Automatic annotation (TrEMBL):
Entry binding sites for Mg(2+): E103
Family classification: Belongs to the phosphofructokinase type A (PFKA) family. Mixed-substrate PFK group III subfamily.
Residues of the signal peptide: none
Residues carrying the site annotation Important for catalytic activity: K124
Pfam families the UniProt entry points to: PFK
Protein name: Pyrophosphate--fructose 6-phosphate 1-phosphotransferase
UniProt activity-regulation remark: Non-allosteric.
Intracellular or extracellular location(s): Cytoplasm
UniProt entry keywords in alphabetical sequence: Cytoplasm, Glycolysis, Kinase, Magnesium, Metal-binding, Transferase
InterPro entries, sorted: ATP_PFK, ATP_PFK_prok-type, Phosphofructokinase_CS, Phosphofructokinase_dom, Phosphofructokinase_III, PKF_sf
Entry annotation: catalytic residues: D127
Residues of the site described as Important for catalytic activity and substrate specificity: D104
Length: 342
């Protein structure tokens, strides 16, 4: 059997661990051959392939990013795109395809599975917003990077009596902000799921200064004020999956706080730093197990499925369970963070 492998969407710590596990088990236990498709869905769309064997996956476990590279290509937005993918898979003798990606990449995989392509999905996103799985790899790394930044910002904030606003990733879901904010001892955490009141935020800031400590505010890039507006909109341009580019909420919020309270405020945008570098031990463990079980699903002919973490078990769920709706921060979980506001 010949198996294709691709990684799509934003890069993520742990992608290489999945690739390594898929290839190592597939060759050692099942005697499969592998073909790597470069640049996400652009690979099978334009027939961009690379060799993928044991030699290619040696030493990649601790490496961030992806040796197969990535893109946000959407074949369903390209005329004849699906037919080209089917033709190129057949031309390469591909019997099954493993797609490693987030909502968009697995959304394409779901549609292709419905059209008869033998595909298995592996969930990937630092935002941890895919339903069907308790956690996605990359999330733990992003949270730890954000937490370390918050730890460091506490000292400079207190030295200068400043408000520090830390903008983290999270377009529609505030998981990174929630976890890193609680772990880092933030005084306010703002998430997309609950529009925030700027006046209330300013009251928390003033209450914090009364303790002789300086406030740290963690805000998701997609968080919005209750009055609405375009505080998070950085560009009106859409990508291939219809997403606008978000960003800027940290700077705008810092300016509002400074104007309303008279306290000096600074914004720190962590941005793609959260995606980069070596994955944590948890993400290496999770990504490896996802890869091992994904190639087992191929062996069993269990196509149209996605690997998912449920407790400590890796289970298979229909692809639509991972892409049908986003997993959002619940009011109950957010209320836990609110205990520490101010």
């Amino acid at each position: 059997m010949r198996v294709g492998v691709l990684t799509g969407g934003g890069d993520c710590p742990g992608l290489n661990a999945v690739i390594r596990a898929v290839v190592r088990r597939g060759i050692k236990e099942y005697g499969y051959e592998f073909v790597g498709f470069r640049d996400g869905w652009r690979g099978p769309l334009e027939n961009i392939t690379v060799p993928l064997g044991v030699d290619q996956v040696r030493g990649i476990l601790p490496r961030g990013g992806t040796i197969l590279k990535s893109s946000r290509t959407n074949p369903f937005k390209i005329e004849g795109g699906v037919e080209k993918i089917k033709e190129n898979l057949a031309a390469n003798g591909i019997d099954a395809l493993i797609a490693i990606g987030g909502e968009d990449t697995l959304g394409v995989a779901t549609k292709l599975a419905d059209l008869g392509v033998n595909v298995v999905g592996v969930p990937k996103t630092i935002d941890n917003d895919l339903s069907g799985t308790d956690f996605t790899f990359g999330f733990d790394t992003a949270v730890n990077i954000a937490m370390e930044a918050i730890d460091r910002l506490h000292t400079t904030a207190e030295s200068h009596h400043r408000v520090m606003v830390v903008e983290v990733m999270g377009r529609h879901a505030g998981w990174i902000a929630l976890h890193s904010g609680i772990a880092g001892g933030a005084n306010v955490v703002l998430v997309p799921e609950k529009p925030f009141d700027i006046d209330a935020v300013c009251k928390y800031v003033e209450a914090r200064f009364e303790t002789n400590y300086s406030p740290i505010i963690v805000v998701s890039e997609g968080a919005v004020p209750v009055e609405g507006g375009d505080m998070t909109l950085q560009s009106g341009e859409l990508d291939a999956f219809g997403h606008v580019r978000l960003g800027g909420i940290g700077d705008r919020l810092a300016k509002e706080i400074e104007d309303r309270t008279g306290k000096e405020a600074r914004a720190v945008v962590l941005g793609h730093v959260q995606r980069g570098g070596t994955p944590t031990a948890f993400d290496r463990w999770l990504a490896t197990r996802f890869g091992l079980q994904a190639i087992a699903a191929v062996r069993d002919g269990d196509f149209g499925t996605m690997m998912a973490l449920r407790g400590t078990d890796i289970v298979r769920v229909p692809l639509i369970e991972g892409t049908g709706e986003l997993k959002l921060v619940t009011p109950e979980l957010y209320a836990e963070a609110e205990v520490f506001f101010g």
